[in-house]
Amino acid sequence: MQSRTLIEKFHLTNGIPLSLYEGENLLHRFDTEGFTPNPAFQIMKPFITPVPKACYLTSPDYLSCGILPLSSSNNQWLLIGPVPIGEYTISQVKNILTRLGKSHKQVYHLQNWLQMLPTLHAYRFKSNILFLDYLLNDPPLENITEVRYPSVDKSAVSLIKIKEPLLGEPERLDVSLNETSGKVFTEKLRDSIKYGMVEELKELLAGLGSTNMGMAHFSTDAVRAFKSTFIYSTTLAALLAEEGGVSNDLTAVLIEKYLTIIQTLTSYDEIAKLWETMLLDFTNRTYQCRIIDSDSILVAKVCKYVQAHLNEKIGLPDLAAFLALSPEHLSREFRRNSGHTITAYIQMCKIEESKRLLKTSKYSIAQIAQQLNFSSQHYFQTIFKKHVKMTPLEYRNTK
Fold first, then answer.
1. What residues have CB less than 8 Å from 98, skipping those under 6 apart?
2. ∠18-21-25 over CA atoms, to 5°?
3. What is the average pLDDT across 213-235?
4. Which of 15-29, 137-151, 221-235 holds the top average pLDDT?
5. In terms of CATH architecture, what is 297-397?
6. What is the DSSP letter of 118?
7. How many CA atoms lie within 13 A of 187 on its CB side?
8. What is the spatial distance between Cα 111 and Cα 296, in angstroms, rounded to a whole number?
9. How far apart are CA 9 and CA 13, in angstroms?
10. pTM of the full structure
11. Residue 211 above 80 pLDDT?
């Protein structure tokens, strides 16, 4: 009964279709107004028998679906999805019905239902399954694998109108934070990440008691509850960072990074420390995108590219090729709209990232120089001192 209550809360918060099964028998469908039969069951059928497998996939029609066995029962499991990646035309909906062996008479019903569902990219869909795992299973299964659909039509991708990745309305995302820390704290936290206000975020975190760090109120186990909140907070932070200008590719890498680390932690203090690191990381990335105050679309594109490739050697020819512009035109327009040369901006971003690594990691100065693709440790130290007015070691030792 408690599991059903938690599943119901999750569904109401996210809008993701959820169905509870025992074997192949449907016990309860939480999206009561959903399309019948649920396409996710047919899509996941190869992974249901003989034993439901903890997994997720993206179908040829770009519907994300998943299976989560429940450890509290030998045969009960949760069907998650489908969740679309974008909008579907009538012909695309007909293709889905054809794959399901269903009549095209239902095409408008299915299309209307798909339009009502939240849109999620695959990595965000996975984070929601992990959240459900920590919420419902004790101990969590954690080993939830991505599986392949028997046959994937690669040509279909260009036909689907991709939306910006969403998790629903913001008020539906930060339930755990809203219910525990209060609306004022939540709004300040969201603004800090979205607008890259690093110092404001540090003050917020410093004033947040260790017993109140976003703890999910519906779990009795502190570590498990905090892991659940961490997974959800990471997804929310990524969304806010994207709104602040960080590229989707970079937030996907960061989500994968933090979801991998959290699975290895076993103590509340470790998770609390990682929670702060994660929030500061996303906020720093947004800040770096906002170093230059410009409304230029070209400048915004350059900033996103640089942020996504900080660990690489970035040159003007690479940027020009990416933006389909001549190097001369790109250099001239960027300087006119930002007041900086591209080389100076790249240096600024790499130095900001090195400052973050010096404070939050145990990497040596030589390792940081190498990671950010400086030509040598000496050159890194020279550029760092030019920008920060102190050496990397002096900066690391400051409070």
1. 104
2. 130
3. 61
4. 15-29
5. Orthogonal Bundle (1.10)
6. P
7. 3
8. 37
9. 6
10. 0.50
11. no
Other CB atoms within 10 Å distance of the CB of residue 102: 17
Mean pLDDT value across the chain: 79
Domain ranges of the chain: 2-162, 170-289, 297-397
Predicted confidence at residue 199, as pLDDT, reads 83
Mean pLDDT of 202-220: 54
The pair of structure tokens assigned to 20 is 């509870």
- Please compute, for residue 197, the number of CA atoms within 13 A of its CA located in the half-sphere on the CB side: 13
DSSP 151-216: S--GGGGGGSEEPPP--S-GGGT-HHHHHHH-HHHHHHHHHHHHTT-HHHHHHHHHTS-GGGSS--
Q: What is the pLDDT of residue 93?
A: 86
CB atoms within 10 A of CB 126: 22
Q: Specify the 3-state DSSP secondary structure of 112.
A: helix
* Tokens (6 digits) for 203: 């003050």
Could you give the angle at the alpha carbon of 260 between the alpha carbons of 211 and 300, nearest 5°? 95
Angle formed by the axes of helices 268-289 and 342-360, nearest 10°:
170
Residue with tokens 């999805």: 81
Is the pLDDT assigned to residue 221 strictly greater than 70? Answer: no
Rg of the Cα atoms in the chain:
23
* Token pair 């990440």: residue: 193
Residue 289 CA to residue 245 CA, distance in Å, equals: 6
